[in-house]
Design a protein that fits this description.
The complex is a heterodimer of chains A (416) and B (440). Chain A has helices at 7-26, 47-63, 106-115, 120-128, 160-179, 234-237, 246-252, 260-279, 294-307, 374-384, 391-397, 400-415, and strands at residues 80-88, 98-104, 133-135, 145-147, 153-158, 189-197, 200-208, 219-223, 243-245, 282-283, 286-293, 350-352, 361-368, 372-373. Chain A has 416 residues and is of the alpha+beta class. In chain A, the strands form three sheets. Chain A has a seven-stranded antiparallel sheet with strand order 1-2-6-7-5-4-3. A five-stranded mixed sheet of chain A has the order 9-8-11-13-12. In chain A, strands 10-14 form a two-stranded antiparallel ribbon. The N and C termini of chain A lie far apart (59 Å). Chain B is α+β, with helices and mostly antiparallel strands and 440 residues long. Chain B has two domains: 30-198, Phosphatidylinositol Phosphate Kinase II Beta (2-Layer Sandwich); 200-267 and 289-315 and 365-439, Phosphatidylinositol Phosphate Kinase Iibeta, Chain: A, domain 2 (2-Layer Sandwich). Chain B contains 14 helices and 14 strands. The longest helix of chain B has 20 residues, at 149-168. The relative contact order of chain B is 0.14. Classes of the chains: A alpha+beta (416), B alpha+beta (440). Chain B: InterPro entries: PInositol-4-P-4/5-kinase_C_sf, PInositol-4-P-4/5-kinase_core, PInositol-4-P-5-kinase_N, PInositol-4/5-P-5/4-kinase. Chain B: It is found in: Cytoplasm.
């Protein structure tokens, strides 16, 4: 690999690819053209991201030396791998000198990736070829989001309580995935890690992106089926892609135009998912809805072609690049996709609008934020004592069963 | 996705030496070994070479590179317990320096990694000073020596100058080719290891082995040693047997010049030394500087390791094996000793191993870029032989010795006295003269 005489080429290639990477992370030009990097420098704006890249790279490589078992054992759900790096005057350019990386239940998540049709090498490449990008999206309690550079995966920063809850539900979640053959609207959990940099611990969980890695989303909703305080704030509306809520959806007269067959399949999946969540006493989850407007996207593409060389666009957490796909990214299908088209094996949540829809659209809909357990909530509610306006009272009286029913009914309604 | 390689291939590689050994390239490396420490070594080399592949090769080494290290601590819980211990540590000293040295010694990092990780390293019968443990890579290209922490300290002391020396002689030396230096911690126990290129051939068996210092005191193999499959004979044995190394004048000249450079001291300062190096090199007097180098650094007590491959005997042994079939199993001591041991398959080489070159080798033939220390006997030699000769055990520093000698106080028979009065300069001179005399 490091042959005499190629060292210079390697240095040049490394700097060229780092330039390419920094360009890739900033611009959204149509001609984005990603050169495959043989040398992964794990270069990122934030040491935490470098450690994430390094860690995923390490963990997938380690797993490639561990035989795939015929079936998972109970111990696999309690397992972890931990590694601590302490370098001295070595590899200081892109990595911190001291960091720790812990992966929870490696064999379980490897199995889940397989069941969700994700190849470990592809997963590795998505997370390591170039640094994950910051996402404007905010979860509950201001959780931080990143997406993989190719927008296939979402990396969410979670709390240690979330990690504990994940461990509690993991066996049953895995079993559920086995039974539904990976065909679900629940989050596809693909990896769970703890990173320690400068003594600070950060917990991260990787899921498949609900939205498309290619088609941009111009409108986004977070729906719970509740009507209290379900409106986007002014601050939120000022964002590039605000997260609207139930009231906005109703007030906007927003509709989801999908045909009978799609609707039936969707609701069937949703019903099973929501039943599962209720059984586990989980609640406060949402349906994330993203809408891709085909004509609007075509228009935007024409505009960006005109402005191409000068502009640098901000990443909005939605689509990356516009069709046709860069041919050098092996993860994209080989033939270019026409407007509004998608590969259902990659954009698994995508549903086309029906023929009688006023606009040609593609909808991305899935369940998110499933880690809130009822018992934990009740404890917190009792500790708080005071019940603010009607909200606190209403929230603390709804139980998971009721929550799931109300949720399901609301979604059913909006699809008609 | 990852293939499910059985354990059959690596186990058979370490135990049997049948001609039909047939090594399948493993995509999945399980790091399976008879001992946890070997698994950790395999894992560690695999990890560090992979890490280095993500660190760009610098234009030149910096002073900090000679003080650097990488350390990693693994703590697994209910994961990957089959082949590796759950907890272990792996430290690599001066990773950039050794990568650079590997390059200068024309060893590709991927090949290095494969040699040390595709199958577990093998135990070697050989014992160094103080019973240091030896291992060889499964393909016999590299030797792994367990060293002390004092040796590690000494390595750090000489590393800059050693590297400079290697740069100047373009890797053309009889000194050990240091390729990697590690500290492994398993079950709380720390083990230090140094990897060097094997002096002997990865293919041709060595039938007789000598460790020569040029000293005549206590330089005889013990009875216990002689009982081994490939005993290490010494100076007196060599002389008493009338052993000859018939390499011919050209080879001798070339060899001695390398040796001298490695071993002897001159009155000149280092700058002039460099000039001499250039001069010597221009005349292909490569050997000269090696010996000079060691004396300059006040290193002594090194040996010339000599291995002799008897071409006719090897041909005979091969025919015996073919006649005897696949049942026989031979012990492997990793250092090319014994009847069929040391060679990894007999010619023709297994085509499945990409590390063996494409062409077939005739009896007594070798690839000089792989078996870098091999010298053929000259045409008019009595026996058709191949000699492997290089300097080993270069980490004893004179000052450390003096301290130890003074601490010991008592001088046993003549030996202690003689040893403590010879200084590095005298040692190198005596060493060089002895070697000159035994070559013809």
């Amino acid at each position: 690999m490091m042959r005499a005489g190629r060292s210079e080429n390697l240095v040049i290639m490394a700097s060229a690819s780092s330039i390419a990477a920094s360009i890739a992370s900033k611009t959204k030009t149509k001609k984005k053209h990603f050169v495959a990097q043989k040398v992964k420098l794990f270069r990122a704006s934030d040491p935490l991201l470098s450690v994430l890249m390094w860690g995923v790279n390490h963990s997938i490589n380690e797993l490639s030396h561990v035989q795939i078992p015929i079936m998972l054992m109970p111990d696999d759900f309690k397992a972890y791998s931990k590694i601590k790096v302490d370098n001295h005057l070595f590899n200081k350019e892109n990595m911190p000198s001291h960091f720790k990386f812990k992966e929870y239940c490696p064999l379980v998540f490897r199995n889940l990736r397989e069941r969700f049709g994700i190849d470990d090498q592809d997963f590795l490449n998505s997370l390591t070829r170039s640094a994950p990008l910051n996402s404007e999206a905010q979860g509950r309690s201001g959780a931080r989001f990143h997406t993989s550079y190719d927008k296939r995966y979402v990396i969410k920063t979670i709390s240690s309580e979330d990690v504990a809850e994940m461990h509690n539900i993991l066996k049953k979640y895995h079993q559920f995935i086995v039974e539904c053959h990976g065909n679900t609207l629940l989050p596809q959990f693909l990896g769970m890690y703890r990173l320690t940099v400068d003594g600070d611990e950060t917990y991260m969980i990787v899921t498949r992106n609900v939205f498309s890695h290619r088609l941009s989303v111009y409108k986004k909703y977070d729906l719970k089926g509740s009507t209290v305080a379900r409106e986007a704030s002014d601050k939120e509306k000022a964002k590039e892609l605000p997260t609207y809520k139930d009231n906005d959806f109703i007030n906007d007269g927003q509709k989801i135009y999908i045909d009978g067959e799609n609707k039936k399949m969707f609701l069937e999946k949703l019903r099973k998912d929501v039943e599962f969540l209720a059984q586990l006493k989980l609640m406060d989850y949402s349906l994330l809805v993203g809408i891709h407007d085909v004509e609007r996207a075509e228009q935007e593409e024409v505009e960006s072609e005109d402005n191409e060389a000068e502009e640098e666009g901000e990443s909005d957490g939605g689509g990356i690049g516009t069709p046709p796909d860069s041919p050098s990214n092996t993860l994209d299908s080989t033939k270019p996709l026409s407007p509004g088209e998608f590969d259902p094996a990659i954009d698994v949540y995508a549903i086309k609008s029906n023929d009688s829809a006023p606009r040609k659209e593609v909808y991305f809909m899935a369940v998110i934020d499933i880690l809130q357990h009822y018992d934990a909530k009740k404890k917190a509610a009792h500790a708080a004592k005071t019940v603010k306006h009607g909200a606190g009272a209403e929230i603390s009286t709804v139980n998971p069963e009721q929550y799931s029913k109300r949720f399901y009914d609301f979604i059913t309604t909006i699809l008609s | 996705m990852s293939s499910n390689c059985t354990s059959a291939a690596p186990v058979s590689a370490s135990k049997t030496k049948t001609k039909k050994k047939h090594f399948i390239g493993q995509k999945v490396k399980l790091f399976r070994a008879s001992e946890p420490i070997l698994s950790v070594l395999m894992w560690g080399v695999n990890h560090t070479i992979n890490e280095l592949s993500n660190v760009p090769v610098p234009v030149m080494l910096m002073p900090d590179d000679f003080k650097a290290y990488s350390k990693i601590k693994v703590d697994n819980h209910l994961f990957n317990k089959e082949n590796l211990p759950s907890r272990f540590k792996f430290k690599e000293y001066c990773p950039m320096v050794f990568r650079n040295l590997r390059e200068r010694f024309c060893i590709d990092d991927q090949d290095y990694q494969n040699s040390l990780t595709r199958s577990a390293p093998l135990n070697s019968d050989s014992q160094g000073r103080f019973g240091n443990r030896f291992l060889s890579s499964y393909d016999h290209r590299f030797v792994i020596k367990t060293v002390s922490s004092e040796d590690i300290a000494e390595m750090h002391n000489i590393l800059k100058k050693y590297h400079q020396f290697i740069v100047e002689c373009h890797g053309n030396t009889l000194l050990p080719q240091f390729l990697g230096m590690y500290r492994l911690t398993v079950d709380g126990v720390e083990t230090y290891m140094v990897v060097t290129r094997n002096v002997f051939s990865h293919r041709l068996t060595v039938h007789r082995k000598y460790d020569l210092k040029g000293s005549t005191v206590s330089r005889e193999a013990s009875d216990k040693e002689k009982a081994k499959e490939l005993p290490t004979f010494k100076d007196n044995d060599f002389l008493n047997e009338g052993q000859k190394l018939q390499i011919g004048d050209d080879n001798k000249k070339y060899f001695l010049e390398k040796l001298k450079r490695d071993v002897e001291v001159t009155d000149t300062c280092f700058v002039l030394l460099f000039f001499l190096i250039c001069m010597c090199f221009v005349f292909y007097n490569v050997v000269f500087v090696c010996v000079q180098f060691l004396a300059t650094l006040k290193i002594m007590d090194y040996s010339l390791l000599v291995g002799i491959h008897d071409v006719d005997r090897a041909e005979q042994e091969e025919m015996d094996v073919e006649g005897g079939g696949d049942e026989e199993e031979y012990e492997n001591d990793g250092m090319g000793g014994g009847a069929l041991t040391g060679s990894f398959g007999t010619p023709p080489d297994s085509p499945g191993n990409p590390l063996n070159c494409g062409g077939f080798f005739g009896p007594g033939e070798f690839d000089p870029s792989v078996d870098v220390y091999a010298i053929k006997s000259h045409d008019s030699a009595v026996k058709k032989e191949v000699y492997f000769m290089a300097i080993i055990d270069i980490l004893t520093h004179y000052d450390a010795k003096k301290k130890a000698a003074h601490a010991a106080k008592t001088v046993k028979h003549g030996a202690g006295a003689e040893i403590s009065t010879v200084n590095p300069e005298q040692y190198s001179k005596r060493f060089y003269e002895f070697m000159s005399n035994i070559l013809s």
